[in-house]
Amino acid sequence: MNRAIYLQTIRPASYRRGLSLIELLVVIGVIGLLLVVLLPSCQHSNGNNRRANCHSNMRNVSMAVHGYSGQNAEAIPVGVYKSSRYPAQSVILAQLELANLQKLFGTYGGTADTSSIATSKKVPIYNCPSDNPQGTYTSPGRGTYARSSFVFCFGADTMEPRAQRDQGVFRVGMASAFDTMAADGTSNTVMVSETISGKTPADPSGAWGYGEAGSSGYTHKNLPRSGTGLAPILARSATDFSNAVGTASSMHPGLVNVMYADNHGKAIDVNIDPAIWRAMATTEGQEQYQYP
Fold first, then answer.
1. What is the pTM of this model?
2. Rounded CA gap, 141 and 138, in Å?
3. CB-CB contact of 199 with 136 (8 Å)
4. Which stretches of the chain are assigned E, i.e. beta strand?
5. Helices in the chain by DSSP H: which ranges?
6. CA-CA-CA-CA dihedral for 274, 277, 282, 288, to nearest 10
7. What is the pLDDT of residues 98-138, one digit of tens each?
């Protein structure tokens, strides 16, 4: 009798006791706590990766400008051609291994019928992952333009400044040269920065093939911005950029990437001293400044 009772109380070898409701809630709570602790670190890491990728693309663009200069008697590309409004971004496509796309622009002194085909093409190397430019800008009577995250620096005031000391690396209607930067030095002069691309068809911000303030060019008249753009002040006409102002901006929290004329890059705090920000943009201003 005792033996029969004993056999009935033996549990099978395969028996496993399940979690109680309280134990299950504890496990879920621990997992949730770990996610709360680890998620900010993952987001920070992803943000750093996007900024590093953005920096790498910008460096390649800067090197393409130097490549063009080396092949063209040390000349820096014309920042914006008057009349046609072709920007420097269209001039350096061959140095970015996009020569076939560049050919669609035709003669830079005039307007090519096929240029809209070229400008509507997205150029990945002109993009920053943090901004992820999408869509196009449609200019009344002037074609369609794909988005970009990078803009070329035209100086400390407007794109066509009245004072020579305010001129930047790129010029409206004319070329410059790296050997003319002896006064300020290529390591002290910003050549490329970021812009937040437009999100509506009517916003020209970041339209890489469009020679206009906020589209392909910008200035240091206004401080850089993070998380939001600043509506550009457009040129009066294709031959008058004396009022045109574009502002550097990015989706990196509190920072904007820039690339100097010697191909070294920095992340600039958007709360930078305005005088230092302006000094960074000039080629012959002879300002003395230090930035961390």
1. 0.83
2. 9
3. no
4. 75-76, 136-139, 143-146, 150-153, 176-177, 190-194, 217-218, 225-226, 249-250, 255-260, 265-269
5. 2-9, 21-71, 88-91, 99-103, 115-119, 274-281
6. 80
7. 999 988 887 665 454 557 788 999 999 999 999 989 999 98
